[in-house]
Specification:
The protein is of the alpha+beta class. The protein folds into 3 domains: 262 residues, BirA Bifunctional Protein, domain 2; 62 residues, 2-Layer Sandwich (Herpes Virus-1), CATH 3.30.40; 91 residues, Anticodon-binding domain (Rossmann fold, 3-Layer(aba) Sandwich), CATH 3.40.50.800. 34% of the residues lie in helices and 27% in strands. It contains 15 helices and 25 strands. It has a 7-stranded mixed β-sheet, with helices on both faces. The longest helix has 20 residues. The two termini are 39 Å apart. The N terminus is likely disordered. The structure holds adenosine-5'-triphosphate. The site of adenosine-5'-triphosphate (ATP) has 15 residues, from β12, β15, β18 and α11.
């Protein structure tokens, strides 16, 4: 559902302003007026993304004994013919001739009829409904043109000669880089079914209406796994990866109440898909797809066999040959980051009628795990020594701040989600102790300086 409630709209604008202020996101090319709904990530978001990616690698690749690869963004153009993207990867676009703006037909209808099952209607029917029912949209009278498909792949050109043969595309998903390397990987790793191949990387889609902050952008990052197995096991693994994906987002700290699982209806399924389930998150504008798990059958490998004339069959131990099925958990990093940030954002009223903004981020993914704060500048040398020691001798994500009152510095750390602050005070050099303040409870405890590393290892 895409309708934006006014109050929610205001809230989300506050959150975005907060994230910009603090250094999570910047407007892309801001000094030139920006690019529509395009965001750059500042150091705090990058720190979170790195954590998320390394947890994904641990959970989806390492612990599962799967393989991680890194294929290219620009591939042989035949890849996209075989995968179906050249012919079918389109959204339906309709133009309001009164303001010359183009919209996604399905978005217009979802705004007005959230429960409508758009997949059940033909293009002509959708066009008719919009023309008949939507007389005003986006604050303006309408004069609709015809609905037409619009291919979402970004065209580019490879090499110095600009002709039809040099035309190619930026990848709209990372998955195809995995399928076309299936043979290479099985050979070089002597991998036995079932096994998975994953990759993390940028994908590009020329979205008609990028919107909703980092939910729908034209450049985004995906973490995709293709888990190859025999057909008879595919339903088991489909369920397995659904469970694993759900556990993963909960492990990162999303609140269970804010997610739901939605299985696609028959009408919604791509023609090759044997089953697709989205994990949705309750974004400020309503439920939206956070990630998807699909049983893609043997469709992709078969297509690439057909178009490349190469065998992508798998030789079983009994000598028979099969084309494996692929189960695909596909996670968008940007949407996951958005969900984690919005889930963690809270404004808390304090006793003295003050307010504090906190990002209650899970320690695993917070940009910093702890901040070192000298109580006054007098303790700066002592505090810096602790800071440098932790940087040099531990992997802790640690920051340092000495400017402003201690109260202000606590607020600053609350606002970026740092779960612990270490205060170095007058007693520190005398007793060899520091105070640890907990972000959520604001409670403080005193421990020995030598205990810091151990303390953080155990919480
Ligand atoms: P939607 O229906 O919202 O356009 P989709 O079904 O086309 O999404 P998939 O092709 O399944 O998305 O892509 C897998 C994941 O990649 C999505 O679950 C989402 O997290 C992410 N993703 C897809 N398109 C975008 C985008 N334009 N911006 C940010 N993330 C995206």
């Amino acid at each position: 559902m895409y309708f934006v409630d006014n109050n929610l709209e205001k809230d989300i604008q506050n959150v975005i302003a907060h994230l910009k202020n603090q250094g999570f996101v910047y407007q892309n090319s801001e000094i030139y007026g920006g690019v529509v709904n395009t965001w750059d990530y500042g150091p705090l978001a990058v720190a979170m993304l790195n954590q998320i990616k390394s947890f994904w690698i641990n959970e989806f690749i390492r612990k599962e004994k799967n393989f991680l690869i890194d294929s290219k963004i620009i591939m042989n153009r035949s890849v996209w013919k075989a995968s179906g993207h050249l012919d079918n990867f389109s959204d339906y676009l309709i133009e309001n001739k009164n303001n010359n703006k183009r919209y996604r037909a399905d978005h217009i209808l979802k705004d007005l009829y959230p429960e409508m099952e758009i997949e059940k209607y033909s293009l002509e029917q959708l066009e008719q409904i919009i023309k008949e029912k939507v007389k005003k949209y986006d604050g303006i009278e309408t004069n609709w043109g015809n609905i037409r498909p619009f291919n979402l792949m970004f065209k580019t050109q490879m090499g110095a000669i600009d002709n039809a043969a040099s035309e190619t595309f930026l990848r709209p998903e990372t998955a195809q880089g995995i399928f076309v390397n299936f043979k290479n990987l099985s050979r070089s790793s002597r991998a036995k079914l079932p096994f998975g191949i994953g990759q993390i990387g940028k994908s590009f889609r020329n979205e008609i209406t990028p919107r909703d902050f980092i939910f729908r952008t034209r450049e985004f990052e995906q973490m995709e796994l293709e888990f190859f197995c025999e057909e008879k096991d595919s339903d088991y693994f489909y369920r397995y990866w659904i469970k694993k994906a759900k556990e993963f987002v909960l492990f990162l700290g999303l609140k269970e109440n804010n997610i739901r699982l939605r299985e696609h209806s028959k009408e919604e399924l791509s023609h090759y898909s044997k089953g697709t389930l989205d994990i949705e998150y309750l974004f400020p504008f309503g439920w939206g797809e956070l990630l998807g798990i699909a049983n893609r059958g043997s469709f992709d490998l078969e297509q690439h066999m057909k178009f490349s004339n190469q065998s992508l069959e798998y030789l079983k131990e009994d000598g028979s040959k099969i084309i494996p099925f692929a189960i695909e958990p596909s996670i968008g990093l940007d949407r996951l980051l958005f969900a984690l940030l919005i889930d963690a954002y809270e404004i808390e009223k304090l006793e003295n009628d003050e307010e504090r903004i906190i990002l209650k981020l899970n320690k695993k993914i917070a940009p910093y795990e702890l901040a070192i704060l000298p109580l006054t500048k007098k303790q700066a040398n002592e505090a810096k020594e602790i800071y440098n020691n932790l940087l040099m001798h531990t992997n802790l994500r640690v920051t340092y701040d000495e400017s402003g009152s201690i109260g202000k510095r606590y607020r600053r750390q609350d606002a970026i989600g740092t779960p612990y602050c270490i205060t170095v005070d007058f007693d520190s050099p005398i007793n060899n102790t520091i105070t640890i303040r907990n972000r959520d409870t604001m409670k403080q405890e005193t421990i020995s300086i030598n205990e810091i590393e151990n303390y953080f290892r155990n919480i």
